[in-house]
Amino acid sequence: MSMWWFVTTLVITVFISNSPVYAYDNNPLQDICVAVNDSKAAVFVNGKICKNPKFATANDFFASGLNVSGIAAPGAGGAAKFVDVNNMPGLNTLGISIGRVDLEPQRFVPFHTHPRATELITVLEGILYAGFLVPDPANFFKSRLFSKILYPGDVFVFPIGLIHFQYNVGNKKAIYLTAFNSQNPGFIFIPNSIFGSNPPIPDDVLTQGFQLIIALWLFGQSLFQIKSITMRMWWFITTLVITAFTCNSPSYAYDNNPLQDICVAVNDSKAAVFVNGKICKDPKLATANDFFASGFNVSGNAVPGFGFATKTADLNNMPGLNTLGLFFGRIDLEPQRLAPLHTHPRATELITILEGTIYAGFLVPNPANFFKSRLFSKVLNPGDVFVIPKGLIHFQYNVGNRKATYFAIFNSQNPGFVIIPNSIFASNPPISDDVLAKGFMLNKTEIAVLRKKFS
Ligand SMILES: *[C@@H]1O[C@H](CO)[C@@H](O)[C@H](O)[C@H]1NC(C)=O
Ligand SMILES: *[C@@H]1O[C@H](CO)[C@@H](O)[C@H](O)[C@H]1NC(C)=O
Ligand SMILES: *[C@@H]1O[C@H](CO)[C@@H](O)[C@H](O)[C@H]1NC(C)=O
Ligand SMILES: *[C@@H]1O[C@H](CO)[C@@H](O)[C@H](O)[C@H]1NC(C)=O
Ligand SMILES: *[C@@H]1O[C@H](CO)[C@@H](O)[C@H](O)[C@H]1NC(C)=O
């Protein structure tokens, strides 16, 4: 009973729409991977080398400090802080990471791409003008700008690999969280890559190449302006790219994701469904609003009596998320209330606390003894980040004496929600008493009590 809120607010949107998740090719594992015959010179391509699981602790899945700004380089105009596999080793192979950017008024995060990740940003403070460029297949020399002015609570998504920017158009500092569906999204700064390459691209090539293509992206700014922008962006390179590139940590590889909860084969194409996300709108008719959602500065609708409110940015209210592999939610938990034991079969979940105190944990099966599992748990305060690996049973519990608010980011557009007690004790049709009694070593009276509680 007490979890029905969860089913109604989350599962209905996810399951009834029956929207399948995305499929990617396996991700490339790093920026380049030149074949080598010498195994001693070889690198691991599937994430970093794994620690012996026996020595893993909850702290490997935990990071703190997103409640404060990163350190700005002098004159930089901004600061960035990232939680990635270097400072949160548990992220390795999980396909997700998060950061915080503080941008001074009128400062610009220049044109860049993330070759291996879709990025989803959420504004916490200030006003941001953000946009991305969608190539026009009918004319490769033009692209379409999808841009929005963003206020606190607004969410905007940049599809994998597309050129984008963020610009603080307000008169006070802007703060936003930035989540990626890769542990190593990669950063390519367009002007820096082009004008600061080593060895340099010949001037002739730049002059011609710039006029033909990049001028379109940069709204016709002069080469001089570009070079000066390039200089001003050095802070960004030092704060962001060093962490991303120097470590040269390769990204993850997954098998292709399953595309929905079940997929029963059918011979009748008329009865078939599209399995690679929802059917796509004609790209000509897409607008920036398809990639935008707002209202995350306030709580979702609480279900009366249940101590919980959720709000999600998903395919239904943010159709641009289709096939991009991200799902976003805000959860407000009343004191002493619990987000019950559940799993997401298709997504790793990364949570960031905005307010309050949460006790969160997940269960890691023990391969040496399948009848035991290990609990990895942490008490989390504002600015703390915790990651819950794909498919593992977990919970969040507000142990404070005031409301707790957190953002949850999932690296699937359809993570799936399996609420353990409800799935088992309130299935339709019901699991027989005999099976439940044996499965949980309970008698039928006890089973009846549990069925009543969870249905
Ligand atoms: C690797 O070794 C094979 C067989 O010895 C050889 O044919 C090939 O050219 C080598 N590749 C590289 C990249 O050195
Ligand atoms: C940020 O969080 C840390 C750890 O919870 C805490 O010690 C610190 O006071 C917080 N800072 C701010 C500015 O809220
Ligand atoms: C939330 O954001 C909306 C849109 O920017 C704004 O109208 C509203 O006042 C904000 N609410 C709060 C509580 O900050
Ligand atoms: C689909 O059609 C093939 C060939 O007609 C048949 O062998 C197969 O059993 C059919 N499969 C299903 C699930 O109906
Ligand atoms: C079932 O178990 C409960 C508690 O262990 C016990 O009080 C009750 O008598 C049992 N009922 C039956 C029918 O065995």
UniProtKB/TrEMBL annotation:
Its cofactor is Mn(2+). Residues 1-23 form the signal peptide. It is found in: Secreted, Extracellular space, Apoplast. Oxalate binds at residues 344, 349. It catalyses: 2 superoxide + 2 H(+) = H2O2 + O2. It holds the Pfam family Cupin_1. Its EC number is 1.15.1.1. One of its GO terms (cellular component) is plasmodesma. Mn(2+) binds at residues 342, 344, 349, 394. SUPFAM superfamilies: RmlC-like cupins. Disulfide bonds join 263-280. Belongs to the germin family. Monomer. In the absence of manganese, it forms tetrameric and pentameric forms which show superoxide dismutase activity. This is Nectarin-1. It comes from Solanum verrucosum.
